[in-house]
Write a structure and sequence with these properties.
The protein is built from two helices and no strands. By secondary structure, it is mainly α. The chain has one domain (18-61). The longest helix is centred in the last third of the chain and has 22 residues, at 40-61. It is extended.
Length: 62
């Protein structure tokens, strides 16, 4: 998940933002996955929104 060549010699063609890693990990076999470009500001907004949602869930469980 870095923007560099991996130890195996394969070039990294993209990076998945942290907010979407759980969605990607749960993708069913043979399911098509589409990627779209986001800038840093959009990635940071998505991360902040996810943190806010998780905080609300934690609060509701107390």
């Amino acid at each position: 998940m870095n923007d560099a060549v991996t130890g195996g010699g394969y070039a990294t063609i993209g990076t998945v933002i942290s907010v979407d890693r759980d969605k990607l990990a749960q993708t069913a076999t043979n399911h098509k996955t589409r990627f779209r470009s986001v800038d840093l500001a959009e990635a940071l907004r998505a991360r902040e929104e996810r943190r806010r949602q998780m905080a609300e869930i934690r609060q509701a469980l107390l």
